[in-house]
């Protein structure tokens, strides 16, 4: 069984005689040990005490400060590691992905949250909460509620970057560098739809009617 008496390591070190009892070192002795205990110099602990624990009786380890367990194999972290963190050595936590800080108490979003997004823990998982006009795991994608048509891409909230030949808030307006004539309509880049009886690339021709 593990034997812990935090703060009494000094007292133990001072007791090299066969029998130690609390208070034997004087009234200003550390008050960690409530009852006296027997320290057997020939005691054997198998498996041996770890992390500088001292074998005080057969198969009984007296652990150094910060360790516990039958063979003092477990480190203690105070405060405890939060969010599933693992105590590596006293006061040192190894945090699961998404958490950081000395006690794994801080949420960290891998790569951060962009554009004003906020990193919070949702059911133990770190995630970015994005402002209304951004989306994506890091809030890296802008939202264009109007949509970006004809190959345009949304580059900022409500703003489309259009392919050449298209204009407008949603890249919905085709551009004809030469205007369409005679009531023709520019329906895609440099392409006119003509009103009868007109035809030609710019609707400049008039079919002969009989
Ligand atoms: C501790 O164990 C050893 C054998 O491993 C034994 O000889 C000895 O008597 C034991 N000591 C006590 C106090 O039980």
Automatic annotation (TrEMBL):
<dbReference type="GO" id="GO:0038092">
    <property type="term" value="P:nodal signaling pathway"/>
</dbReference>
<dbReference type="GO" id="GO:0005576">
    <property type="term" value="C:extracellular region"/>
</dbReference>
<feature type="disulfide bond">
    <location>
        <begin position="45"/>
        <end position="55"/>
    </location>
</feature>
<keyword id="KW-1015">Disulfide bond</keyword>
<feature type="disulfide bond">
    <location>
        <begin position="176"/>
        <end position="186"/>
    </location>
</feature>
<dbReference type="GO" id="GO:0070697">
    <property type="term" value="F:activin receptor binding"/>
</dbReference>
<feature type="disulfide bond">
    <location>
        <begin position="130"/>
        <end position="139"/>
    </location>
</feature>
<feature type="domain" description="EGF-like">
    <location>
        <begin position="41"/>
        <end position="73"/>
    </location>
</feature>
<keyword id="KW-0732">Signal</keyword>
<protein>
    <submittedName>
        <fullName>Wnt inhibitory factor 1-like</fullName>
    </submittedName>
</protein>
<feature type="signal peptide">
    <location>
        <begin position="1"/>
        <end position="22"/>
    </location>
</feature>
<dbReference type="GO" id="GO:0009952">
    <property type="term" value="P:anterior/posterior pattern specification"/>
</dbReference>
<dbReference type="GO" id="GO:0009986">
    <property type="term" value="C:cell surface"/>
</dbReference>
<dbReference type="GO" id="GO:0007507">
    <property type="term" value="P:heart development"/>
</dbReference>
<feature type="disulfide bond">
    <location>
        <begin position="194"/>
        <end position="203"/>
    </location>
</feature>
<feature type="domain" description="EGF-like">
    <location>
        <begin position="105"/>
        <end position="140"/>
    </location>
</feature>
<feature type="disulfide bond">
    <location>
        <begin position="109"/>
        <end position="119"/>
    </location>
</feature>
<dbReference type="InterPro" id="IPR000742">
    <property type="entry name" value="EGF"/>
</dbReference>
<feature type="disulfide bond">
    <location>
        <begin position="63"/>
        <end position="72"/>
    </location>
</feature>
<dbReference type="GO" id="GO:0001568">
    <property type="term" value="P:blood vessel development"/>
</dbReference>
<keyword id="KW-0245">EGF-like domain</keyword>
<feature type="domain" description="EGF-like">
    <location>
        <begin position="172"/>
        <end position="204"/>
    </location>
</feature>
<dbReference type="GO" id="GO:0038100">
    <property type="term" value="F:nodal binding"/>
</dbReference>
<dbReference type="InterPro" id="IPR050969">
    <property type="entry name" value="Dev_Signal_Modulators"/>
</dbReference>
<dbReference type="GO" id="GO:0007368">
    <property type="term" value="P:determination of left/right symmetry"/>
</dbReference>
């Amino acid at each position: 069984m593990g034997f812990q008496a935090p703060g009494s390591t000094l007292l133990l070190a001072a007791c090299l005689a066969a029998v130690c009892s609390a208070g034997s070192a004087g009234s200003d002795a550390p008050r960690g040990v409530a009852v006296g205990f027997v320290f057997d110099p020939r005691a054997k602990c198998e498996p041996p005490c770890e992390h500088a624990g001292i074998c005080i009786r057969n198969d009984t380890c007296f652990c150094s400060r910060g360790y516990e367990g039958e063979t003092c194999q477990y480190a203690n972290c105070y405060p405890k590691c939060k969010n599933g963190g693992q105590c590596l050595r006293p006061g040192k936590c190894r945090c699961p992905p998404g958490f950081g800080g000395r006690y794994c108490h801080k949420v960290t979003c891998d790569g951060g949250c962009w554009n004003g997004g906020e990193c919070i823990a949702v059911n133990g998982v770190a995630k970015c909460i994005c402002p209304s006009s951004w989306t994506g795991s890091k809030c890296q994608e802008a939202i264009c509620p109007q949509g970006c048509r004809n190959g345009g891409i949304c580059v900022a909230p409500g703003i489309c970057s259009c392919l050449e030949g298209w204009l407008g808030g949603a890249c919905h307006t085709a551009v004809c560098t030469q205007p369409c004539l005679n009531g023709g309509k520019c329906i895609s880049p440099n392409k006119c739809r003509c009103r009868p009886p007109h035809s030609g690339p710019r609707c400049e021709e008039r079919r002969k009617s009989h």
